[in-house]
Amino acid sequence: MPIPDANVIGGNGRMFGRKAHALGPGAGQWSDGFYPHGQASQGPGWAPGQSSCSGWGPGCGGWGPVGSFDWVGPNFPDHVQPPGLVSGLAGGSGNVPPGLTGYPVDIDLWFSDQLIDSDATLRVSTTTVAQTFGHFSDGTIFEWSCSSGVLSGSGQRVNWTPDTVGTATVEVCADRPTGPTRCLAKEFEVAAAPARVSIEGVETVLDLGFGRFASVTGHIVGAAPGTVELAMFKHTDVHYLDDAPITLESDGTFSVLAFLFDNVSRINVVAKAPGVELSTFPGCNAHWCWGDEDPASGRHLPVFPDQVEVSDVDIHYLRVSTHPDPAVAALDDRRASIPVLGTADSYLYRASAESEQYYLYDQATVAIGLVAAGEYARAAALLDGLQAAHLSDGSWPFLMWDNGDPYWWDGDIRYTGANSWAVMAFNAYHIATGTTTYSAVVIDALDYLDSLRHADGARMPLRFNPSDLPSTTWDERDVNSFEHNADALSAFAGHAQVLGYESHPGTIADLEGWIGDRWNGTYFNPGTHTIFGDNARERYLDTQTWGLLALGGVDTMYHDGLRNDCSVFFDVAGHVRGLTGLLGFSDFAWSTGELPYGPFIWSEGTLGYIAALDEVERATGTTVMCEGFGSDDLYDTMSQMLLDAELPTSTSNAHPEYTEVPGTAALGWWLMVDAGLNPFRPWDAL
């Protein structure tokens, strides 16, 4: 996908445009790039370079005996949530297909002992569709999720919805070049799908200044007439039941006229059994009224009595900002004003649509995203907030209160990567606007970052954190994160672009050398320990993408890191709510390639991968594909996941930190990717 090589195009001031697809934003988690876990084992499977060939692996030629393989499941992991909330997926392109009859099912298949080193064929008896997969290592876990109506996707994970309620059969066969084929069949019961609620729109009918009457419309599927009723809760600081009746038509559509005060942030439409009475809990002074976290989706929902049967809840976030770009409007609604003496209003941004926390990394990604979108005034207001939150030694806390004060929940947490991202944000603003407005704060911050450099062999990378943290078993001062040092490289190099010379001579070249030293011939190792050396036990998605973004896309050797990300982290069958068959990447794996939480799609990381693909094409004209999918395909998935300018942190998965809650960091990443900006090298856009 060629990106125009121009300074600024379009009336909105975007640096160099990507495409005119749907607009929208995202969420994400910050990855530190190095976790000394202390386990003696790296998990099941082979390790690259091992000499033993007890199973299939690199250097293990031939087939060997076909070992045993067994089912783990079928199961229904966390699909039915207390107190009866259903968070299963139902399929379709944004909506649940009317013909859905099967309840969502996850089936895990565990290959034990020897490898089934051949073509393994999955047959689903209800669809008569067969899919062939490749070679599998010992301990590989497969997932098939019922969701899309037919068997689809490729690789180890596909989407499938049974076409009937009742008994279904899945058969997996291991074929050998010679000898008998071994097959394993499993029958399981497919339950009826639950009702699924979808809010489609909230339109103002009458604006009264302090509030408005609004028409809330949507539809429900999977429920026979007369088997379900709807209710609506409005959320301010707590969840209040609205007493307006909801009309449910025979075709499954519904509508309600509701009054919404200006401080209502979101609404919840609830599907319940007929005759069940819901209410705002008395007094509204306990967690019953505040709501509770749904363990499957991570979203904050009303709490219902244990005996109440609730089929589903859909959430609609209400926009207050009227900005025409819904991503920018969503960010506007997350601002906390912290007026700075002598300046206009300044802001920090909440970590998610449902959070009251303010992370430094989020502020930086949002600021760069606003710069990429040409929203310089908004970016400056945020940078004013960061300037006000600056500590006396030139650093920032990793987490802040809404007034910019440090939130030291675990001691002196001033992660190097997040501090570097803050400098990257100021650099991006200076480069885009041609100003040096925040030079003083950048100089202080770079002096602080340079003070974290210490000897690691012949190089001088930056420490993970300036002090040891009590909650971890490892000393952060001895750890050097690849991602943090890639961030720092961008921080120093970006300021050099602004000044026309290096403020800390030799630092940029030394960081480039240390980063290059981490290349193991296939991908970048995620960091080092000053005593124990390279961390070769773990792989991180961002290590490859951020490394390439920081170094630039010219060196084709580093393109292999993106291909390695593809082979380890890529998922073609992510699902969230009614969306299925989504493309993207998870975040972490052991060096064996094992994904501890299975495959899923992490929005922020996937956007970073898109940015890396774009950087390669910008620098070399080369198109790097992942299993036949390119940058545009991944961008389209992110567009599909964009719901009311809210991008879920991830698709459904078992990781407790990656939920469906819409976050803030990838809103910034969305704006960067939409504009075609590499946040590590914004000078390349000019």
Please describe the topology of this protein.
Layout: E1 69-75, E2 80-81, E3 85-86, E4 106-111, E5 120-124, E6 129-133, E7 141-145, E8 157-159, E9 166-174, E10 182-190, E11 196-207, E12 211-221, E13 229-235, E14 239-242, E15 247-248, E16 253-261, E17 266-272, H1 287-290, E18 292-293, E19 300-301, E20 310-317, H2 326-332, E21 335-337, E22 347-349, E23 358-359, H3 360-372, H4 376-389, E24 399-400, H5 416-433, H6 439-450, E25 479-481, H7 482-499, H8 507-517, E26 527-529, E27 533-534, E28 538-540, H9 541-551, H10 559-569, E29 570-576, E30 579-585, E31 588-590, H11 603-620, H12 631-641, H13 665-675
Parallel strand pairs: 7-8
Antiparallel strand pairs: 1-4, 2-3, 4-7, 5-6, 5-9, 9-10, 11-12, 12-16, 13-14, 13-17, 15-16, 17-20, 18-19, 21-22, 23-24, 25-26, 26-27, 28-31, 29-30
Written overview of the protein:
Helix 3 (360-372) runs parallel beside helix 5 and helix 11 packs antiparallel against helix 12 (631-641). The strands form 11 sheets. Strands 1-4-7-8 form a 4-stranded mixed beta sheet, with no helix packed on it. A 4-stranded antiparallel beta sheet has the order 6-5-9-10, with no helix packed on it. A hairpin with a 4-residue loop joins strand 5 (120-124) and strand 6 (129-133). The chain is globular and about 75 Å long. It has 13 helices and 31 strands. With 686 residues, the chain is α+β, with helices and mostly antiparallel strands.
